[in-house]
Design brief:
The complex is a heterodimer of chains A (about 110) and B (about 110). Helix content of chain A is about 0%, strand content about 55%. Chain A is mainly beta and about 110 residues long. In chain B, strands 2, 5, 6, 10, 11 and 12 form a 6-stranded mixed beta sheet that branches. A 4-stranded antiparallel beta sheet of chain B has the order 3-9-8-7, with no helix packed on it. In chain B, strands 1-4 form a two-stranded antiparallel ribbon. In chain B, strand 7 and strand 8 form a beta hairpin. The interface between A and B is medium-sized, with 26 and 22 residues.
Chain lengths: ~110, ~110
């Protein structure tokens, strides 16, 4: 059974640009969550999608957005990148969002 | 709001030593509790979980017991190996639509 797949693994972007990250959940999982991991703030919840609807959102500015497609794949977008957006972005999938979550390997975003 | 506190790290042990990583939480109701492990350059892997008071989660020699009276979920292993070197995260969810609340992580280094 394939795990959670995140693409790309690494990204380098310039301040002011925008970026889109992709996440393919485990087959059959309908909930996808996104997290930001930084040395200073640790792991912080961004948002969760279930059946193409955002059900939960963390405390991040509106520059951070996401969406989910009918096949449960999800994308997150960050617009007007700032240096502080440099982080490891992790995607997690679960059956319904209230059960154990399985994480992808993450996308390492560097903003220069 | 919900919060998770882990013992200060890093933790350095010799192979075959006993491991304890303390974790306490603050949350209303009855959260589910988890330990995740992160190896260098990787995402998070679920190590073990407990969903109700007095449950004991166990996996690969690691154990943790859900203690509601002390709001704790301490991770233990009787004999660590070099391959256990990683970052360990304690986390909770209150079935709140995919949101996991994480502790700050504890770096474990095991020397031969």
């Amino acid at each position: 059974k394939a795990g959670v797949t995140q693409t790309p693994r690494y990204l380098i972007k310039t301040r002011g640009q925008q970026v889109t990250l992709s996440c393919s959940p485990i087959s059959g999982h309908r909930s996808v969550s996104w997290y930001q991991q930084t040395p200073g703030q640790g792991l912080q919840f961004l948002f969760e999608y279930f059946s193409e609807t955002q059900r939960n959102k963390g405390n991040f500015p509106g520059r951070f957005s996401g969406r989910q497609f009918s096949n449960s794949r999800s994308e997150m977008n960050v617009s007007t990148l700032e240096l502080g957006d440099s982080a490891l972005y992790l995607c997690a999938s679960s059956l319904l969002g209230d059960t154990e979550a399985f994480f992808g390997q993450g996308t390492r975003l560097t903003v220069v | 709001g919900d919060s998770v506190t882990q013992m200060e790290g890093p933790v350095t042990l010799s192979e075959e030593a006993f491991l304890t990583i303390n974790c306490t939480y603050t949350a209303t109701g009855y959260p589910s509790l988890f330990w995740y492990v992160q190896y260098p350059g990787e995402g998070l892997q679920l190590l073990l979980k407990a969903t109700k008071a007095d449950d004991k989660g166990s996996n690969k020699g690691f154990e943790a017991t859900y203690r509601k009276e002390t709001t704790s979920f301490h991770l233990e292993k009787g004999s660590v190996q070099v391959s256990d070197s990683a970052v360990y995260f304690c986390a909770l969810t209150r079935a709140s639509y995919g949101k996991l609340t994480f502790g700050q992580g504890t770096i474990l280094t095991v020397h031969p």
